[in-house]
Amino acid sequence: MTAPGLKLGPIEVDPPVVLAPMAGVTNIAFRSLCRSYGAGLYVSEMISARALVEDNDNTLKKAGFGPDEDVRSIQLYGVDPEFVAGAVRKVVDDLGVHHVDLNMGCPSPKVTRHGGGAALPARPRLVGRIVEAAVRAAGPVPVTVKMRVGVSPRHETFLEAASAAVDGGAAAVALHARTAEQLYSGTADWSRIAELKAHVTSVPVLGNGDVWAASDALRMLAETGCDGVVVGRGCLGKPWLFRDLADAFAGRPLQGPARLGEVVEGMRRHLRLLVEQFGDEGLACRDFRKHVGWYLTGYPAGGERRRRLALASTLAEYDALLDELDPGEELGAGLEAAPRGHTHGPKEVTVPYGWLSPASLASDAAPGREADAWTSGG
Known about the structure:
Layout: E1 7-8, E2 11-12, E3 17-19, H1 28-35, E4 41-48, H2 49-53, H3 57-62, E5 73-77, H4 81-95, E6 99-104, H5 109-112, H6 124-138, E7 143-148, E8 150-152, E9 155-156, H7 158-167, E10 172-176, H8 191-199, E11 205-208, H9 214-224, E12 228-231, H10 241-250, H11 260-278, H12 281-295, H13 303-309, H14 315-323, H15 358-361
Parallel strand pairs: 3-4, 3-12, 4-5, 5-6, 6-7, 7-10, 10-11, 11-12
Antiparallel strand pairs: 1-2, 8-9
Helix pairs in contact: 1-11, 4-6, 6-7, 9-10, 11-12, 11-14
């Protein structure tokens, strides 16, 4: 299959593949590792607009980019148009960002309980105000929006909110085809992506949800007509998925599942990139622990060895344990598309009192400063 063209403003994304922002995962090191396997658009962790404007030290560090990032892409979270506009001006002017994505799909309770994240699209007029403010502040830099189907099956918001975003100047809209109530459970309903694609015709529509293998991406485009795919949990512990996606979209044969030796090599590279990013070996090793289980999903590594790897605190410890693995071991049969990362849900979504009432749905008022908490989500 030859990949269709995907343009976000002046940015050509070829193949039409975007790395989804994931809290605590899509930092400089992980983006660099993934990008080494194939082209695409690689987005930062979600960054709080308010925290950026107020120069929070930790947030400023998370908003950094590596010297090899020719296209700097950042995702911002905010509920107040003024904070969002201020953050956009800051990342464009100070960080040289080339693309800004606005998160309107985070299902985290600490975000939705204040009307932010996946609760925000319930106020499409506010969505329009936020996007318009961001676009005005961004100048020639494209602004896109990522959202979910809605708060729950009883409160679906994606069509009206997407229209408001496009009217506000969004260069593209991405849809995670689950509700916030689902969290990461069940399966993504790709028919909603097709519905959005039919509804939004003036800008690209991107699909997100359950792209575990390159074949899933091709199938999503074929079934929905979307213009590109957003890959999240599918690349956890499998950064070479971007190589597979590049090959699939170019019509080249795939290389097949990685043997354990390639997995180990990826783990070593990831670790050293984290050390380079943090400048602290202990911190890098602790940060890497959450990745161990993802990398070894489907491989015969042994429970005790997995446990020790998840507790290692130095590069030497990791190297010694990784040396014990058999590089010739293959991925278990039928596990190429095994789910990774969060699988929890469904769970009732917490939103402010009256947030989903008819009067609230028609409001364009921001939910308040507390909704701009210094937090991250996916």
